[in-house]
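#onboarding

Welcome to the new folks! Below is a worked example of what a typical request in this channel looks like: someone posts a single protein sequence, and someone else replies with the predicted structure as tokens. Don't worry about understanding the tokens yet, we'll cover that in week two.

Example request:
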Amino acid sequence: MRNLRQLLLVLPIAVISFASFPSADAEASVTVKVDRGAQTMHVYVDGYLQHSWAISTGRRGYTTPSGVYRPTRLERMWHSRKYHWSPMPYSIFFRGGYAIHGTNETGRLGRRASHGCIRLHPSNARQLFSLVSQYGRSATRIHIR
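Example response:
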């Protein structure tokens, strides 16, 4: 009877502890959640929040598409052919010419300022680029709302 009582006391703790950690068999992943209204990005690795950053999305007259995407292409340094060869360091393309990338206009982060891309501080863009490179495009999801 005593062993059963001890088991009943320990079992809920073990279940809670086990449930709070991802399964070793679960696929490693990167999830990027973009909130256009708040102009923020939250980056989750294997379900755990790793980063929260200010961003800039499409300004008036330009839109950043909403939806769920996988990265289609990664470019360590890209220049926009459409917008005066503007530098786009650490570009993660997710839909046609739309990308998440670093910007030199860091003073505008936190408000709408782009032609539709998602701009980050260059050091944050480098960190995200590294994560996506490490985990792979197929294990990365970009959620934009």
